[in-house]
Design goal:
about 210 residues, alpha/beta, 8-stranded mixed beta sheet
């Protein structure tokens, strides 16, 4: 079993291209391949999960809509939102999907706590919340015993596009980002914190974040 976790900082990348690359890696990886976390931001895009219902898209306007193969309903990705795509061999680590979801949510809670933001997950609505406002959304897919897709954390972004949808299928759900709660928030710092916490909770030493 590889004892390293590869973390890649991809910068701002197109959603559909990255999605295809995730699927390709997951489909072709073998037991010799290290687990990977891709840290990135997307250009503005709405993504609709497998269970997504059309009525939750209110007015896309000029933002494209992509039908994705992850779990969950509709959400928005855009600049200033930190995404971690988490490609883990669940069988190798001996954990289930629910374990991974809990691990990811608790990692986000820990990152936010380091910035003085108190947050919590909800058992009936995946993601992380602050005073009933959603700050982080989560959607996973598992293939061949390995996860892909992952988690999005609103760091410092334009939240207006969330008003064009029922976020994650919840009418009137208010979204928030870290910058509004803690004005000193810095994306580069949050990126390193999230990578380190995810790695530690997955049982790896702190990773080196590679560019590209």
């Amino acid at each position: 079993m590889p004892d390293t976790l590869l973390c890649r900082d991809l910068g701002v990348v197109p959603y559909e291209l990255t999605w295809e690359q995730m699927k390709q890696f997951t489909q072709t990886r073998d037991k010799a391949d290290a687990d990977q976390i891709w840290l990135l931001e997307h250009a503005p895009v709405f993504t609709q999960g497998q269970a997504g219902k059309a009525e939750h898209l209110l007015n896309a306007g000029d933002i494209p809509v992509v039908q994705a193969d992850r779990g969950g309903q509709i959400t928005y990705h855009g600049p200033g939102q930190l995404i971690a795509y988490i490609m883990i061999d669940l069988k190798r680590l001996g954990i289930g999907v629910r374990d991974l979801v809990t691990l990811i949510e608790n990692s986000i809670v820990e990152v936010l706590a380091q910035h003085g933001i108190t947050s919590y997950p909800k058992p009936d609505a995946p993601g992380v919340y602050v005073d009933e406002m959603k700050i982080s959304s989560l959607g996973l897919r598992v293939r061949r015993g390995c996860s892909f897709h992952g988690v999005a954390l609103n760091v410092d972004m334009d939240l207006e596009p969330f008003l064009r949808i029922n976020p994650c299928g919840y009418q009137g759900l208010q979204m928030v980002d870290m910058k509004r709660l803690q004005p000193t928030t810095d994306m580069a710092q949050v990126k390193v914190q999230l990578a380190n916490i995810l790695a530690e909770r997955l049982g790896y030493s702190h990773p080196t974040i590679q560019q590209g």
